[in-house]
Amino acid sequence: MLDTLGQYIVTVADWVCGYPLFFLLIGGGLYLFISSGAVSLRRLPASLAELRRRPGNAERQAGQISSVQALLSVVAATVGLGNIAGVAIALVMGGPGAIFWMWVSAIVGMSTKYHEGALAVMYRGHDASGRPRGGMMYIIEEGLGHNWRPLATFFAIAGMFGTLCIMNANQLTEAVTATFTTPQWIESSSLLAAVSSVTSLSHVQAFKLLFGILVAVIVALVVLRGIRRIARVASFMVPFMVGVYFVMVLYIICTNLGRVPDVFASIFHEAFNLQAGFGALAGIAIIGARRAALVNDAGIGTASIMHGASRNTNPVREGLIAMLGPAIDSGLVCTLTATALLICVPDIQSIEGVKGLAIAMDAFGRAIPGGAYMLMFVVICFALSSMFSYSYYGTSCAAYLFGERKARYYTYAFLASLVVFAVVPLEAAVGMCDLFYAMMALPTMFTLLALSRRVHRVTRRWFKRTKSNDAPSVEMATTPEDKDMTSEYKGAEAES
Predict the structure, then answer these.
(1) Fewest CB atoms less than 10 Å from the CB: which of 78, 191, 280, 303?
(2) What stretch of H or E contains 20?
């Protein structure tokens, strides 16, 4: 009976996380992109300028983390195994053309993230100590009204389960076991033999148990110290791991310069290959866009939790920072992966029965001396950074439901799950988490679409004032005029 139930959960999760989730995220994101006047393209220079802006005194005294720290923490969650394994799978299924549609999805996702970031500042709650707490649950309750609290509760419940890193814990453990161990070493290890005798686990399972405990300890050292520690670690890890990955791909490009033009030519050619027929073209587009949508988390609502804890009091500025997330993960990192794979494995579509991570490790291993181990190091960094941020997401959802004091028990449960699912791969549990993840998207996209006009009004007013010099430029430090935009968006509410 349990096996039947597990199969049913997996079947439902696979269907919901397939085309329904794709059309919800991409279709809704496309509407936000068009209705906002292509904010992700038109306001990109202002968004980049925000990275150079020095925070004012008001920002230093309020909130918990800076806007840039919030961005890097969000990127730490989204830049993970999907940016490597997911891209490889997209190339196998859809060919080089899928990458072009990943870029399109990134642009659409940037618009969605802009709305998430802006609303996270416009409508946020506070914890028992008075510190700002953000998230879609607060946006729903404060933005849509208290009558919509059941929808906020629905999001928070789904968020607690959807942000568990069951897949990451299991895949990371499997990858480390396959890369750094051999059957001979595992069977001859006295330590593993001792653990096996005590726990009645096999030697392989004993190794996974010890590695799971190690991962849980590392994650605990970060997440138990709260969001500020998570933000500081993310501020270091994200530039470091993306930089290391960039150097690896740059090496592959420099040693294969002659093949680079053909790679990008194939991306654009296959993206619009009408010879394959409209059905095939649509399939390639959906594969690429779907993978990007699932990688950057745009429209899921998790980013609003981190950006809601920002010290920023200006929703437009926070939105400009937030929209850079998909540009980094679905744009930069996924492009790096695709370029390296297409150079190293030109016939990637002919590969069958190989997992995405295995494809990447084999390609990097052949292109760079010790490349497989270097890539594994990057994968470990990616996976750990995701766990840091997702722990905070789930804890924030628990805090909304049960209060700050009881939310810490969720953190302990999160850490325990990293150990359990490192040893026991439960397909049904993974499917259930995926299902809850998709359930987060429903209230998120509904709320973003319902409140989008308010965001658009505030955006137009802000840039109109900026252009006429009635407000500080986005490149300047925060001034008293920028201290509180409550009247701005409340005015937008009154007009709507």
Answers:
(1) 191
(2) helix 19-22
Residue type, 121: V
Element (H, E) at 125: strand 125-126
Backbone angles phi, psi at 306, to 5 degrees: -75, -45
- Helix ranges restricted to H, 43-182: 44-52, 57-61, 67-78, 85-94, 97-122, 136-139, 149-162, 166-180
CA distance 271 to 94: 9
Give the Cα separation of 488 and 485 in Å (integer). Answer: 5
Please give the structure tokens belonging to residue 70.
């919030």
Rounded-to-integer distance, Cα 145 and Cα 149, Å:
8
| Helix, strand or coil, per DSSP, at residue 133 | strand
- Residue found by looking up tokens 């300890």 in the block: 217
In 351-365, which positions are buried (b, 16+ CB within 10 angstroms) versus exposed (e)? eeeebbbbbbbbbbb
CA distance 305 to 310: 9
Residue type, 440: M
Please provide residue 56's backbone torsions phi and psi, each rounded to the nearest 5 degrees: -80, 180
CB 329 within 8 A of CB 75: yes
Looking at residue 483, the DSSP 8-state letter turns out to be S
Q: Say how far apart CA 78 and CA 385 lie, in whole Å.
A: 9
- Residue 89 in this model has a pLDDT that exceeds 60: yes
What are the pLDDT digits (tens) for 304-320? 999 998 888 889 999 99
Instruction: Give which of 316, 308, 321 is closest to 457, Cα–Cα.
Output: 316
The total of other beta-carbon atoms located within 10 Å of residue 340's CB is: 28
Nearest to 363 by CA among 125, 12, 84: 84
Strand, helix or coil at 473?
coil
- Both tokens assigned to 450: 């319902």
Long-range contacts of 485-494 (CB under 8 A, 24+ apart): 485/313, 485/314, 485/315, 485/316, 485/458, 488/458, 488/461, 488/462, 489/122, 489/315, 489/454, 489/457, 489/458, 492/453, 492/454, 492/457, 492/458, 492/461, 493/454
SS3 state at 391: helix
Per-residue pLDDT tens digits for 219-272:
999 998 888 888 888 888 888 888 888 899 899 989 988 888 888 888 888 777
Query: pTM value?
Result: 0.85
**Token representation of residue 416:** 């325990």
The residue type of 188 is S
